Amino acid sequence: METRFLETFLTVVERGSLAEASRRLGITPAAVAQRIQALEDEIGVALLARAGRRVRATPAGLAIMERSRRILTDARHLRILAAEDAPAGELRLGAISTTLTGLLAPALSRLRETVPNVEVFLLPGTSAALHQQLVDGGIDAALLVEPPFPILKTFDWRLLRSETTTLLAPRGWADEDVHNLLATRPFIRYDRNNWGGRIVDRYLQDAGIVPREWLELDSLEAIAVMVANGLGVALVPDWARPSPDSDDVVRLPLPLPSEPRRIGMLWPRNSAAGRLVEVLIGVLGSRPAT
């Protein structure tokens, strides 16, 4: 059985259509269909069924999905282990959105220059979702906010950046008292379902401030754009540049101590991909974040 057939099957299920899977895999829809047919012929049952314009897994397809993921992970790890002389292989990396441009973009550029045989597959997501992907074995490592609970003993954690909480405000409000802004101006909240958003919530509680909340978003970039358009103020972590700052936005320090948002790398301790993770961490740490 060819692993590319399993990869194609999983991609079709995840994307919901042969056309979307073909775009993800860089092959034609006809080639996708041929691979699925070959896999079904080898296993002896139908794995996919059409539901209108979408494609879904049959009960037999659902039954083999988890094992298929493990087989593909094992195959990738074998290729990594076989590359003894130099780091090589694919690293499946999850990352929260603010690290994609602020930390990862320059690091990946340096990674490509120094270890060109390492390929990186990036999966964006929230810290909670990426943590679950790690536990389930869907990704090799994640660049995320430090979990608000004890890290499993089977995982390694490396702190890469600590971000203070700051107030984003329209420039025209820059001379006002920070706590007065939080209490009187429209408040754009960083989603409390995000681990970083919980830090914001704790600051407000400690300061005894009940903001005039009218909008809650899970994207820091979107929050900054809203503030730039004069729609309110927001408490956010001072994430790595570049960020959507403009002349219309100011970042104001808080008068009370605030808990930092800690960004780091989390990965399974005994994973074969650990070698690639260490290489990436080395590249991330080779230049200070601004």
CATH superfamily of the largest domain: Periplasmic binding protein-like II
Q: What's the helix-strand series?
A: HHHEEHEHEHEEEHEHEHEEEH
Termini separation comes to 48 Å
Largest sheet: 5 strands, mixed
Number of domains: 3
Uncertain residue segments: none
Helix proportion:
40-55%
By DSSP (H or I, 4+ residues per run), the number of helices equals 10
Label the structural class.
Answer: alpha/beta
Query: Under the CATH scheme, which class of the largest domain?
Result: Alpha Beta
What is the CATH architecture descriptor of the largest domain? 3-Layer(aba) Sandwich
In terms of DSSP E residues, the strand content is 15-25%
Number of strands: 12
Shape, per Cα inertia axes? elongated
Would you tell me which CATH topology of the largest domain applies?
D-Maltodextrin-Binding Protein, domain 2
Please tell me how large the radius of gyration is.
22 Å
pLDDT averaged over residues:
86
Strand order, sheet with most strands: 4-3-5-12-6
Write up this protein.
With 290 residues, this protein is an alpha/beta fold. The protein folds into three domains: 1-64, Winged helix-like DNA-binding domain superfamily/Winged helix DNA-binding domain (Arc Repressor Mutant, subunit A, Orthogonal Bundle); 83-160 and 263-290, Periplasmic binding protein-like II (D-Maltodextrin-Binding Protein, domain 2); 165-259, D-Maltodextrin-Binding Protein, domain 2. 44% of the residues lie in helices and 24% in strands. It has ten helices and twelve strands. It has a five-stranded mixed β-sheet, with helices on both faces. Strands 10-7-11 form a three-stranded antiparallel β-sheet, with helices on both faces. A two-stranded antiparallel ribbon has the order 1-2. The longest helix has 24 residues, at 59-82. The protein is elongated and about 70 Å long.
